[in-house]
């Protein structure tokens, strides 16, 4: 039975849910408070890492589920959004051992490389003690993805309304009423709340068991090197030659090679944050590049800011209570799974089961 579904939030998560829900024949309206392509949340910019190698096998499975959906999105929207360049993980041998084991059990290729082999193949990158290469990885163009998802949803009948802020969500009868900043009251069978760093507001009031969400402003940089598009994506895991907690990630993009620290930025209020680059954070990345990225020599880094919304266990929140499905707590690593998370959201809206790892009210240790 076709349902009327309102989706609050038009970033990666809301747009993915809208695409998959409209593909299943539901009548979808997306309400997004800012304009198309805005840079106030978590889904803007030109690049995100796609990779299969995760220490936790269920994330590898999820990325494998996303892969054909990425290609389907490209076909439906006519936009190329995912480029496979391969990925290099490097750092402590035991970390790489675990990633290689997960890839092998999933039947996907992965190859150990020595630091010398890495330097030979990618002279711009200096690897730590040990390295692992897997080819099923690369970059997703973030801005183009959100546009492609909303276009594809629109072609299947979804209505996308920008400049509309949801101020209240109420459960009414068997469904829900969504109130907007212009005092419209929209009634639907189901609501998907996908408001990223703003989730502690609208989502917290309408469901129980939302874990504490830590909203931080992260500050990656681009080094505008000319061969950026030939770079693999890479993760330098902490613990061997690297002492930066959370490690360093990087990848090529049309803006240069992007590198960033994972989840170390200051806690912010998304409505009142100063987006001026933090010189100390910039210095840390510059110092990292001097030591580990000979390919950046002679280029100056350009900073940008973006929000992380992190749960204590760094697993997402994707669950339903009554007519309300919540997609939140993306913890800085959800982009690669986007279309698969949209499928999961559509299953939940239709009354199907979710994944216990992403459940509201779960009890899990803090990472
Ligand atoms: C610097 C950085 C690097 C990252 N790198 C990677 C990576 O390499 N690989 C990877 O897989 N992931 C990565 N991520 C994570 C990924 O980008 C995020 O998990 C994902 O974009 C989260 O999307 P979202 O839809 O939850 O949030 P958002 O993109 O913030 O979307 C939420 C939307 O809701 C809207 N909204 C808010 N309140 C309301 C309201 N009341 N009414 C209507 N609309 C509202 C906002 O305007 C916003 O557009 C990175 C994130 C950052 C910040």
UniProtKB/TrEMBL annotation:
FAD dependent oxidoreductase domain location: 4-348
InterPro entries: FAD-dep_OxRdtase (IPR006076), FAD/NAD-bd_sf (IPR036188), MTOX (IPR045170)
Cofactor(s) this protein requires: FAD
Pfam families listed in its UniProt record: DAO
Single GO term (MF): flavin adenine dinucleotide binding
Protein keywords: FAD, Flavoprotein, Oxidoreductase
PANTHER family from the UniProt entry: FAD DEPENDENT OXIDOREDUCTASE DOMAIN-CONTAINING PROTEIN, PEROXISOMAL SARCOSINE OXIDASE
Protein name: FAD-dependent oxidoreductase
Organism the protein comes from: Streptomyces nanshensis
């Amino acid at each position: 039975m076709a349902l009327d579904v309102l989706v609050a939030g038009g970033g990666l998560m809301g747009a993915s849910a809208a695409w998959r829900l409209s593909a299943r024949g539901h009548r979808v309206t997306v309400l997004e408070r800012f304009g198309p392509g805005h840079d106030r949340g978590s889904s803007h910019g030109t690049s995100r890492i796609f990779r299969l190698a995760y220490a936790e096998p269920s994330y590898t499975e999820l990325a494998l589920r996303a892969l054909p959906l990425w290609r389907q999105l490209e076909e439906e929207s006519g936009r190329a959004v995912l480029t496979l360049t391969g990925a290099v993980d490097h750092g402590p041998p035991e970390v790489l051992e675990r990633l290689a084991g997960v890839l092998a059990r999933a039947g996907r290729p992965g190859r150990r490389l020595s630091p010398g082999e890495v330097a030979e193949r990618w002279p711009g990158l200096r690897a730590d003690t040990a390295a692992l290469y897997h080819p099923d990885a690369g970059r997703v163009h973030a801005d183009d993805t959100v546009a492609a998802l909303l276009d594809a949803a629109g072609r299947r009948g979804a209505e996308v309304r920008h400049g509309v802020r949801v101020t209240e969500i109420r459960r009414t009868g068997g469904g829900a009423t969504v109130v907007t900043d212009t005092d419209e009251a929209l009634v639907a069978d189901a609501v998907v709340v996908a408001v990223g760093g703003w989730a502690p507001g609208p989502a917290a009031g309408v469901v129980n068991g939302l874990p504490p969400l830590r909203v931080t402003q992260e500050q990656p940089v681009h080094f505008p090197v000319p061969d950026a598009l030939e770079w693999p994506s890479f993760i330098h895991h902490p613990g061997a030659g690297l002492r930066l907690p959370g490690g360093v990630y990087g990848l090529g993009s049309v803006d240069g090679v992007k590198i960033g620290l994972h989840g170390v930025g200051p806690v912010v209020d998304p409505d009142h944050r100063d987006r001026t680059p933090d010189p100390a954070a910039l210095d840390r990345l510059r110092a990292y590049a001097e030591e580990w990225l000979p390919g950046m020599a002679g280029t100056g880094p350009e900073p940008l800011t973006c929000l992380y919304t992190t749960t204590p266990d760094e697993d997402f929140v994707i669950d339903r209570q009554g007519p309300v499905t919540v997609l939140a707590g993306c913890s800085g690593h959800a982009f690669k799974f986007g279309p698969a998370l949209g499928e999961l959201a559509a299953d939940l809206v239709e009354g199907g089961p979710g994944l216990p790892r992403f459940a509201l009210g779960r009890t899990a240790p803090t990472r």
